[in-house]
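Hi there,

I know you've been waiting on this one. I reran it after we fixed the sequence typo, so this is the corrected version. Both the input and the resulting structure follow.
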Amino acid sequence: MYKKSRRTKRPALRGMIWAAMSFLVCVALISATFQRLQSAGSNSARAEVRGSETGRLSSGAQRQTTKQRLAMRAELQAREDELQASSADVRELEKALRDAEAAAQQGPAGRAVDPRAAQAEIAARQSALRAAQADMQKLQAELKAKQKEKQQMEDSRRMQVGADTLTARAQGLQEEIAGLRVRGKKAEARKNVVTATSVHGVASNRDGAVTFAECSKAGVLVKPLNRRLSADPSAADKETFRQAAGESGYVVFMVRPDGLGTFQHYRAIIEEANGSRTSKIEMGYEPVDAAWQLVYPGEE
């Protein structure tokens, strides 16, 4: 009876040893899988921080550089690699779960094992599988978010390029408009430029010198003497004007609309000088527009 009892217990002992070894192998596999998932999660967190910082800098600067776009592409590739690794872990855990369920149904050499131990092992593997699936879903969501962020960056870059192009075009149009205005002002100024000899035809036909007196409310501009005398002439002004007129022998008064009073004062000076001269000083006068810019002989 004693020997028969020992033969009966040996197979049961071997079954318990096999079940323990199988359980230890499964635990080691699950531990390695969890370490890989934790490493992937920490890398994902660091990548998320870098991505958030990059996103804030990009929105603040409103311009994406080539370096940032390359970094984003590298980060997306890293997330895709992590997702593939996580998918492989899930597949391994699913296989391990199937193996555990099969082991629960059939022990070594077809002998049944402890149902409570088998259920505990299956529950542990199911929990590990759910955690791995949750990590995989998280990585998938992060990957979609990064892909969306990348698309937004590309859209922002294209919009910035378009805005820069429009700004350059607007600046070119503004410069062109400014040039047209300058040319218009020059053309307007040239339109108002009038030669004194074209106004007074007699002066252009004379062989001798001519003294021009441009009369305005401010006074008289004497050409070619290039002296300005007061509107109400003093004794010195009268003497200067008599000498200039006497040297040429011909005075042309260019009378502005507000210079009639000044013209009468200086015409009286010539009339008074002619009363005591044997050779009379000839006079002529022409009304000129207030906007005209008169050009005198020698100034063309």
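Quick highlight: The chain has two domains: 2-165, 195-295.

Best,
R. S.
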